[in-house]
């Protein structure tokens, strides 16, 4: 991205998405590798509709703001899992403080996509299911 484009995006408060997985041309997803990021903030947002197993339609997402290589990036995840419980990604970030460094990496085990969350200082690997791949579309705004 050119310097002018970065300046315009920053002026408009638009942040690039943190892409942990990418869609493959013939279907499926592939990891973009490990991302060492610093957790900056999180907040609830309204997003696209998704259905839970009981047929309930939700639009609740949690948006995370990270710093990666000097750039602010956002990552959105559904607030609820398909069974209606609080998403494991959200649950695990309850134990991570603002300013903590974590390594996030998209992984795949059989048909299940998940995100490994590793706190940089003295943590263990946590497997978190994430059945959604971020859209390749436009960057998102964060307030």
Topology:
Elements: H1 3-12, E1 14-17, E2 21-23, E3 29-31, E4 35-51, E5 57-68, E6 71-78, H2 88-93, E7 101-109, E8 112-119, E9 126-129, E10 140-141
Parallel strand pairs: 1-6
Antiparallel strand pairs: 1-10, 2-3, 4-5, 4-7, 5-6, 7-8, 8-9
Structural notes for this entry:
- The protein has helices spanning 3-12, 88-93; strands at 14-17, 21-23, 29-31, 35-51, 57-68, 71-78, 101-109, 112-119, 126-129, 140-141.
- Residues 135-143 have low confidence and may be disordered.
- It has 143 residues and is mainly beta.
- It contains two helices and ten strands, in the order αββββββαββββ.
- Helices cover 11% and strands 49% of the residues.
- It has one domain (16-135).
- The strands form two sheets. An eight-stranded mixed sheet has the order 9-8-7-4-5-6-1-10.
- β4 (35-51) and β5 (57-68) form a beta hairpin.
Concise summary:
With 143 residues, the chain is mostly beta strands. 11% of the residues lie in helices and 49% in strands.
Strand order of the largest sheet: 9-8-7-4-5-6-1-10
Number of strands: 10
The CA-CA distance between the termini, in Å, is: 22 Å
Number of helices: 2
Mean pLDDT: 83
Molecular shape:
globular
Number of domains: 1
Which blocks of ≥5 consecutive residues have pLDDT under 50? 135-143
Helix content: 10-25%
Order of helices and strands: HEEEEEEHEEEE
Structural class: mainly beta
Strand content: over 45%
Biggest β-sheet, characterized?
Answer: 8 strands, mixed
Compute the CA-based radius of gyration: 15 Å
């Amino acid at each position: 991205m050119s310097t002018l484009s970065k300046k315009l995006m920053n002026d408009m408060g638009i942040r690039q998405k943190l892409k942990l997985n990418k869609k493959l041309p013939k279907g499926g997803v592939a990891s973009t590798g490990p991302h060492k990021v610093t957790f900056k903030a999180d907040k609830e947002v309204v997003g696209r509709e998704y259905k839970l197993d009981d047929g309930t339609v939700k639009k609740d997402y949690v948006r995370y703001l990270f710093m990666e290589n000097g750039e602010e990036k956002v990552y959105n995840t559904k607030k609820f899992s398909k069974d209606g419980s609080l998403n494991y990604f959200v649950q695990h970030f309850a134990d991570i403080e603002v300013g903590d460094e974590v390594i996030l990496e998209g992984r795949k085990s059989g048909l299940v996509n998940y995100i490994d969350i590793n706190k940089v200082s003295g943590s263990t690997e946590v497997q978190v299911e994430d059945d959604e791949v971020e859209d390749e579309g436009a960057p998102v705004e964060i307030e």
